[in-house]
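Budget justification aside, the reviewers requested a transparent look at the raw inputs and outputs of the sequence design task funded under Objective 1. We therefore reproduce one unedited record. The lines immediately below are the C-alpha cells for a 104-residue chain.
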C-alpha cells in the first residue's frame, strides 16, 4: 500500500511482508499498543518512471529484492508494479508459447 503526504507525494510504502513481520513480532511481545503507519513503512521507497521498460523494472525489483515498485510521475503516484504482474505476464507468455508449439 502506498503512503502519501497531504499533497499526494509518495512518502512510503507498506507491504504485506512488513505487516506480517510487525504483527508477528508484536504478538511475541504481547503488545497491545496501536502502531502508526509511519513507524513501519518503508520510507522513500525506490520508484520508477512510467517510461521504464518492463525488463528494467523487473531487473530493479530482482536486484533490490523488492516485491513491488511504485510508478511515479511529477512526484505523483500513478501506479504500482508487483510480483503478481510479472507472474501474470510470464503465465501469458508461457501459454502463448505452448499454443504455438501445439500448432506445429
Amino acid at each position: 500500500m502506498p503512503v502519501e503526504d497531504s499533497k499526494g507525494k509518495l512518502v512510503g510504502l507498506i507491504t504485506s511482508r512488513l505487516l506480517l513481520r510487525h504483527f508477528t513480532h508484536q504478538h511475541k511481545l504481547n503488545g497491545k499498543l496501536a502502531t502508526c503507519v509511519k513507524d513501519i513503512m518503508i520510507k522513500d521507497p525506490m520508484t520508477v518512471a512510467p517510461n521504464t521498460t518492463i525488463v528494467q523494472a523487473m531487473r530493479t525489483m530482482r536486484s533490490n529484492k523488492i516485491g513491488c515498485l511504485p510508478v511515479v510521475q511529477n512526484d505523483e503516484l500513478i501506479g504500482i508494479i508487483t510480483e503478481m504482474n510479472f507472474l501474470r505476464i510470464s503465465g501469458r507468455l508461457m501459454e502463448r508459447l505452448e499454443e504455438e508449439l501445439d500448432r506445429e
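The helical segments are 16-28, 37-40, 54-64, 83-103. The first helix runs from residue 16 to 28. Computational costs for records of this kind are itemized in the attached budget.
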